[in-house]
Design brief:
four-stranded mixed beta sheet, Immunoglobulin-like, mainly beta, 0% helix, 272 residues, 43% strand, 2 domains, five-stranded mixed beta sheet
């Protein structure tokens, strides 16, 4: 599940205009934003992005599996607007989907970031996802397995280019999860928690899976699993401690699930 987390800011760099990537889409008006994109040495597919208002990092989304199922919904990235509701003039593009749906953010024109959060000033923006969409990497898919509300924006075109995705539960959907994908079968609970958090992971086949808990800055707090996971439903538990056995601090954490073709996240709040 995609979730919100804190943006990591980088040292300020000069605003030298759009340093467009090889083959990157370049539409009228984009270079006029005074933005620059610079590849980060030693981190393939990751870039430093600077605009007149803020600085951040973004990365190309991983390619989707060749045989991945088509998405149920598509959110189009136009020149300076998201459009899923058929009205590109909406102030904030809003889309409501049912739990278990796959959503695709599809580049139509220009070059954009797909960044979670309300805007670059949101303390929870950018760690859940911060992708660069260009003509080499024009779309990103995500499957939402539980009710949630997700705000997102384009770093280059804020405050104009904003969207809200509302994931609603539906008892009328008998099989809301694609049967061929790794997923959370039960979200972290209790949430918020004062200690131990439990959740369940379902795997359609044996595969290599990594499950870790990240803090709001994207740093690993605890590694829960890293290796083969058999087909079936598996219970997991995080006791609210770090890899060193210390109690984690009060605040927001991310349970991060990853395999070769799936990335999913869930938010957890620790209380004392």
């Amino acid at each position: 599940m995609i979730t919100l987390a804190t943006r990591r800011l980088l040292p300020v760099i000069g605003l030298v205009g759009f340093a467009c990537l090889p083959g990157a889409a370049r539409a009228g008006g984009h270079c006029a934003t005074g933005a620059s994109i610079t590849a980060i040495a030693g981190r393939p597919g990751t870039f430093r992005i600077a605009t007149a208002g803020a600085i951040a990092t973004a990365r190309w989304p991983a390619p989707a599996p060749v045989n991945s199922a088509p998405p149920a919904y598509v959110i189009r990235a136009l020149g300076d607007r998201w459009d899923a509701d058929g009205n590109p003039e909406s102030e904030t593009d809003t889309l409501v989907v049912t739990a278990g749906s796959t959503v695709r953010w599809q580049l139509v024109s220009g070059i954009h970031t797909l960044t979670d959060g309300k805007d670059s000033g949101d303390p929870g923006a950018g760690i859940g996802f911060d992708y660069l969409l260009d003509e080499q990497h024009p779309w990103f898919d995500s499957t939402f397995t539980a009710p949630d509300t997700l705000e997102y924006f384009c770093f280059f075109h804020e405050p104009r280019m904003r969207g809200v995705l509302i994931v609603s539960g539906s008892a009328s959907v008998p099989d809301p999860l694609p049967p061929s994908r790794l997923h959370f079968t039960r979200p972290p609970r209790p949430n918020p928690s004062r200690g131990t958090v439990s959740f369940d992971i379902g795997a359609p086949r044996e595969q290599i899976v990594r499950i870790e808990v990240l803090d709001a800055h994207g740093r690993r707090v605890a590694l829960l699993h890293d290796g083969p996971l058999a087909a079936g439903d598996h219970p997991f538990r995080w006791r609210g401690t770090t890899d060193r056995g210390e109690r984690a601090r009060v605040g927001l954490y991310i349970v991060h699930l990853r395999s070769a073709d799936v990335t999913a996240m869930r938010r957890v709040t620790l209380l004392r």
